[in-house]
Amino acid sequence: MYIIPSLLCLNGRCIESAAEEPRVLCIVQDTTSSKTINERLTLNLPASTTVNKLYEDVAHKAGYVNGTFCLGWVNTGDQVRAPLDQASEMSLVLSGFEAGKKNFLQLTDKDGEQPQIASDESGTADSSGLDDSSQDRFIGPLPRDGTVGCSSDYSSPSYSYSSILNKSDTGYVGLVNQAMTCYLNSLLQTLFMTPEFRNALYKWEFEDSEEDPVNSIPYQLQRLFVLLQTSKKRAIETTDVTRSFGWDSSEAWQQHDVQELCRVMFDALEQKWKQTEQADLINQLYQGKLKDYVRCLECGYESWRIDTYLDIPLVIRPFGASQAFGSVEEALQAFIQPETLDGPNQYFCERCKKKCDARKGLRFLHFPYLLTLQLKRFDFDYTTMHRIKLNDRMTFPEELDMSPFIDVEDEKSPQTESCTDSGAENEGSCHSDQMSNDFSTDDALDEGICLDNTSSTERVLKPKSSLTFELFSVMVHSGSAAGGHYYACIKSFSDSQWYSFNDQHVSKVSQLPSVLNSTNAYMLMYRLKDPSRNAKFLEVGDFPEHIKRLMQREKESEEQEKRQREIERNTCKIKLFGMHPVKMMMVENKLEVHKDKTLREATEMAYKLMDLEGVVPLDCCRLVKYDEFHEYLERSYEGEEDMPMGLLLGGVKSSYMFDLLLEIRRPDQVFQPYKPGEVMVKVHVVDLKSESIAAPVSVRAYLNQTITEFKQLIAQATGLCAETMRVILERCYNDLRLLSVPNKTLKAEGFFRSNKVFVESSDSTDHQAVFTDSVLWKLLDRHGNTIRLFVSLPEQSPGSLANRTSCPKASADSEDSLDGAKGSRKSVEAILEESTEKLKNLSLQQQQQQSSSTSDSQKSSEHSDFEHIESPAQEPDAASQPSQTENCTRAASDTENQFPSEERSDSDVNNDRSTSSVDSDILSSSHSSDTLCNADSGPLPLANGLDSHSITSSRRSKAHEGKKEKWDTTEEDSGTDSEYDENGKIKADSQYLYFKAEPYSQEDGSGEGQKCLLVHVDKRITLAAFKQNLEPFVGVPSTQFKVFRVYANNQEFESVRLNETLSSFSDDNKITIRLGRALKKGEYRVKVYQLLVNDPEPCKFLLDTVFAKGMTVRQSKEELLPQLKDQCKLDLSIDRFRLRKKTWKNPGTVFLDYHVYEEDINISSNWEVFLEVLEEPERMKSMSQLAVLTRRWCPAQMKLEAFREVVLESSSVEELKEKVYALPSCSATDLILLLLLQGRGTFPCDISLLEIHQDLDWNPKVSTLNVWPLYICDDGAVIFYRDSTEELIELSEEERNELMKKESSRLLKTGHRISYSPRKEKALKIYLDGGPTKDPGQD
């Protein structure tokens, strides 16, 4: 029949039908809040759609009230397009949209107000509060074949939203995927859609006195089911249910199998329901019985037992077969098909008293009311030794007749029941929710679930029996054996409609004929068709009283959550800053204020939030607009105190491009108005006499002001003289510029929103000097390069604060001298203690002189530790008023004599291996030193030094925070050798470098006896000079302590490059000082590991030691001997162990005794070396020799023998064979060699015994070892060999499986790869006691 097509005119062009009408793809970005900024609303609309209709569609999909938002074009380049008129009746094409292309739009606020969320009753809102920003939202049919318009996409001019249905359409609520919990969601929805299970769960009543509701699995399931039935949300969380399982957040990222979860959950429910009416619920609903029998074929005697099952595992493809079963009926028939036991598998008949042929099989005796079928799609491929998923198509009927599979024989024999429930291993797994198809119109069709066209009439004619089951749930696994995604297709018994439950998305399945077939269906649920037993869901009015109370509580909680969301939607959230007048530090908070609150009310809220009540009056505070990044006050709000915050801030948002500052004034001050367009300048006044820099004073100026006018402005704010004023602008970090042109504007000089200047006004002659040679420049340069460090001293520091070398001031008046004398007074006890300490130091110095004759090699390996000497008590005056003592960097020769010490083993101190965290404590004595050090000419006195405000700049500190930290290494020093002696101390003159240290106590001080310093130091100082300045505080020479830099994760790394500066350090970095001999120039710290070639763990850490440049291997071995004996209890002779190269866990080159470090052996920082104990004297004498490790493979016994070393004189394969023949275990006449090639893993190159014989390439066709494919050019190569005449033993299936388990366990323990297991899985467990017991030794 011919149908005349309707004509549609568009842009003067006629289109014959709506199906051929061009389409417009609109992509809308929601910019109204930070949560939706990444969302994309995708609409595929007919070109004739009007703009007004577009607004309605966007409102429907976004969940907003129409008319409360604006739609505009995304501007590109210089093209600016007007927003779309909501009232326009023009078509999209006439409004500027392009058919067949992507059209990008922005959804924005209207009149500064965020869009209103549509009510739940409208069916358009996502009231769950879920953030779906990670996934696009789509309306209309999806484009296909890369085109926007497609005739098959559409059948009418109007489109529908059937692809994505919310609860108002389907009536069902989804479940949120926590991460990889789609398997859990599928099972929970299936149980919820089972009337008998849901009704029985509702009848159970929770007793508060018996258990914590948080840990009660039935109670949390009950709550979840009530929410699924009554909630107005689109989807709800399952975190309360998983918490009742005893799971933490990490379990949400574990992939598990839905059938395994079903079995484990049923077990947990049975345990929880003991001694209740629901104690036998699981068995009543899901448990069936089958007979496991063996029948003798000679006498007919049958031995059998009764087993129970909760599900029936059905094989998809029989073992060894290439074809899969075509239907569930075929698989069920194969399940009960008996096998014949004959030949070696004959059965011993009790009646015949001999082995006879027999028939073994299973018979179903009873089917459960709810029948669960598991399609075993996960299998193991013995050819590839990998787990695979079978995607063969298997049909399953909507109605399944199980009568052909039931055993009608009477059960008269005594039953020996044993709970051998059948099941499958943990095979199915899931990936994240990303694999779910949010836009599929029919999930069932996407996964290959389709139907034939059997009519309903034909189904009525089918005879029904008492064992007819109807399908109501198909749990689908899409993906591979490595991972995938679960969802469920479930039929509602209320309306017989099929729905797809795909995590939070619930949609209708379009059609479902009588026979289904699928390549991904994994678990099927059937219910027995029995009108007398088939139940209906309980309606809300029929709920038990305890469920009604629970529903009321959940409803109130949901209403409260909704009100809270409404408040959140109208709350402005902005960062709040303020300088606290007591703490004297910038405090940051988050100000959350309702949009209708006035500025005056917001100021009061900020006042309380900053904890200023009782500190300053409220009328001395105000809120100003603030740019925290530039530290810039943008504007103040005079006369706007009663304006609502929503208007003042430009709308309700969760984040703003600016901040607020709570400004505080003194009662006698008046707030200065801040106008837009002004620039803020922080003015630091410099005093050349005291060489100090004052705290900043804020001044506001305009960019068009001249330097002369700017000086007058500063003079008014600071009281300085403008005629003699010098103004220095710090344009960027430590970039100083003298502003000397009077008529030049601030804009021309490079001023920006926030600026920093230094001013000095005096009549000194320093004005006449060139700026870069002036004292002012040197002072500012020192200020710009000074950093603040926190130094933790050793807990048992032997130094005394009273026993420090100090340099007297070059010039001081009588008042300063009096203060110095007052600060240096000591009690009688202190003087006596100092005398005692001097005597002790003299004795220790003599001991050092006596021990100085020991060899250099012994010195390099010794460590030192020191006795703890308490600091002398000081007078209260000295404690309360820190003395200004100038310490200077001393020459190396003086240091050694001033701090003699007793040397002994420092292994205990050094055994921390640089990973301990910094402990803090209060330094008992108040002491500080201001030092401007020069190696030769002595100290340059500073009157007052720099205070803590002048030392650091918060802006510079932030700049450092943005930089990547440079990690210290112990590689060769980068400076010239002539600048430093062997201890790294300065020989020649150096520039004046600032150093100031004072006691510091942390608020969270821990550990009595530990001392901390707050050090201000010029970062251009070298590490050697820095250590010399720390000597008085540590109490030992710089060569006897180590400096460790502490990073953000509390890891510590030693800094040893003595001639490098502290330029990589920044403000507030932490340093830990540890006692022990520091590395000298040319020394390296070395970690020694023992090589145990035949142990399960071949690499064992022994100790840390020090090797020096120019030392021979034998010398290092001599120094190792006493350390090995003391620390590792290894008593060795020097000829019975060797050192060799260590690369990760692989042994390498054998080091010969005459090798010299740095000449023959490259050595670096944190070097690692293997120590190998020898059973016989060393056979390696020359570098031309080659040491390889050989291992014999015995295929007839399926075992590998122990490693044996072979030393070759050349790289000849023939020589290798001869040496192998000479091994005690070798009796073969023809050996085939194999090298485990690179990429097979680290030493000991373990491999599965099931792979080594066939999977590796034996007998390479080479005559030398140093060519392809062997490439053996260094010691430590691993070679397997075997007898070529020895055949591989044939294993039975049971023996192979047993060996596979043993190999899996062995290789897992050794940490080596198992080729047939792509990933390690975690067993699924539900904990009835609230959670797993944690090992107390674990973190």
Automatic annotation (TrEMBL):
Ranges of compositional bias, category Polar residues: 116-132, 415-436, 797-808, 880-900
Region spans: Disordered: 112-148, 406-436, 797-828, 840-983
Residue ranges annotated for the USP domain, each copy included: 173-529
Keyword Chaperone: no
Keyword Plastid: no
Annotated GO biological process: protein deubiquitination; proteolysis
PANTHER family in UniProt: UBIQUITIN CARBOXYL-TERMINAL HYDROLASE, UBIQUITIN CARBOXYL-TERMINAL HYDROLASE 47
Protein known as: Ubiquitin carboxyl-terminal hydrolase 47
Organism in which the protein naturally occurs: Cyprinus carpio
